[in-house]
Amino acid sequence: MFELLLFIAGDSNLSRRAVSNLERLCEDSLGEQCAVEVIDILKNPALARQHRVIATPMAVRVTPLPQRKVIGDLSDAARFFEGLGIPRRGVE
C-alpha cells in the first residue's frame, strides 16, 4: 500500500491539474494499492513545513519508507513513478 500526500496551493489550474493527474495515475496503475490525501498549504501551512514543501504541487510518498518527493503537475507518468519509487502495475 502506498500512502501519498499531494500538496497544492489553493484552487489554481495547476493545483486542479495535479489532483486530476494523481487520481488518474493511481486509478490506472495502482488501484486499491494507493491512498491519497490532498493538502492545501494555504489552509495547513504547519503540515507543509513538517514535510518540507519547497514548491507546489508536490507529491510525497509517505509509506512505505523512505519518503520520496516529486514536484510538478504529475502529467509525466514515468517521472512520477520513478521519482516516488513506485512500480507500475504490470511493469517490473
Automatic annotation (TrEMBL):
Source organism, top-level taxon: Bacteria
Record-linked SUPFAM superfamilies: Thioredoxin-like
Pfam family, one: KaiB
CDD domains in the cross-refs: KaiB_like
Biological process annotations from GO: rhythmic process
Residue stretches making up the KaiB domain: 5-86
Gene3D superfamilies: Glutaredoxin (3.40.30.10)
Official protein name in the record: Circadian clock protein KaiB
Taxonomic lineage: Bacteria, Pseudomonadati, Planctomycetota, Planctomycetia, Planctomycetales
Gene name, Swiss-Prot/TrEMBL: kaiB
